Amino acid sequence: MKATCPVCGGYGPLESFLVDDDAKRAVVAVGKLPGDLPRLCWAYLGLFRKPGSTRVLTWERAGRIVAELAALVAEPETQWKGGRVVQNRPEFWAQAIKLVLDRDAQGKLERPLDGHNYLRAVAYELAEKAWHQGNVRREEEAKHRPQDPQPQRRRDPERDEHIVPLAEGLKGWREKLGVTKEES
């Protein structure tokens, strides 16, 4: 069976792709990515090659790129250029790769990429939008939640025995404080 490498465009027997240890590691690393990322990752790797170049992307470099991407995806939170720290999810990275690939298809991306910074910026923007939408939704839900007019006070039987109505408690306050009518 013959195969074409989606990264470098090389063509040859399938076995030749799986003989190299770096190729095996790269394929396994891509397969471990969550969600839609394994399918999208192969096209994303192609962005690290200059179009029409005779030079290929080595499996060692492809493995390094995938390892870096996996580390970014695995982080529980993300931040970009000192912005707000927001929750990170694999879906943001999958959407970001799709947007970067679309931008490349439109000819608006300078290739070859030399790192993940552009992808990080796009994924962070998606994560921040999701954070903002979640906050707006929670605020809207809070507006429509019925408000308890008076919070229930916990009853304390020992304390309740000493409760005196205000009018009764104020009777004779001048005498209790030693104040005469002329002074007040």
Walk me through this protein's architecture.
The protein is mainly alpha-helical. The protein has one domain (2-144). 54% of the residues lie in helices and 5% in strands. It is built from nine helices and four strands, in the order ββααααββααααα. The chain has helices spanning 14-19, 21-31, 37-45, 59-74, 90-105, 117-144, 157-160, 166-170, 173-177, and strands spanning 2-4, 11-13, 77-78, 86-87. The strands form two sheets. It has a two-stranded antiparallel sheet. It has a two-stranded antiparallel sheet with strand order 3-4. Strand 1 and strand 2 (11-13) form a beta hairpin. It starts with a strand and ends in a 7-residue tail after the last helix. The mean pLDDT is 84.
Percent of residues in helices: 40-55%
The rough form would be described as rod-shaped
What is the mean predicted local confidence, pLDDT? 84
Strand order of the largest sheet: 1-2
Largest sheet: 2 strands, antiparallel
Radius of gyration: 33 Å
Unreliably modeled segments:
none
SSE string, helices as H and strands as E: EEHHHHEEHHHHH
Number of strands: 4
- Number of DSSP helices? 9
Sheet/helix structural class? mainly alpha
Task: Give the percentage of residues in beta strands.
Answer: 5-15%
The termini sit apart by 106 Å
- The overall number of domains is 1
